[in-house]
Design goal:
Largest sheet: none
Order of helices and strands: HHHH
Radius of gyration: 22 Å
Structural class: mainly alpha
């Protein structure tokens, strides 16, 4: 009985940690999407990471990346995923800025 109780307590703490981690990720992503300066800083950092992966994968590590098919797929798949994510975030940024400008113009018309 004691073992099962301690196992349940341990399981509950693991689930709480996972939920806490997911909640932290949720709030972090919301803060990036809401703050223009943070969003653009994140885009710039993501661009640097992508360019670094492209340069490393094409020149100094090209033989290593191309030596096995799974390594090649993981390397360039990850780079492609980050690139698509950056493009989606950039499109969101453009739409969000457009919306902010339209809202500013709307408020100026009423004053």
């Amino acid at each position: 009985m004691v073992e099962s109780l301690s196992a349940l307590v341990h399981l509950g703490s693991v689930v709480a940690k996972k939920q806490s981690f997911l909640i932290d990720i949720w709030y972090f992503s919301r803060s990036i999407l809401r703050d223009r300066a943070m969003r653009r800083r994140f885009l710039a950092q993501l661009l640097i990471v992508i360019l670094t992966l492209l340069v490393l994968g094409n020149w100094p590590l090209s033989d290593w990346v191309e030596s096995t098919r799974p390594r090649f797929i993981v390397w360039w798949g990850g780079t492609t995923f980050l690139t698509v994510w950056m493009l989606m975030l950039a499109a969101y940024d453009a739409l969000r800025v457009r919306r902010e400008i339209l809202e500013e113009d709307e408020f100026e018309d009423f004053s």
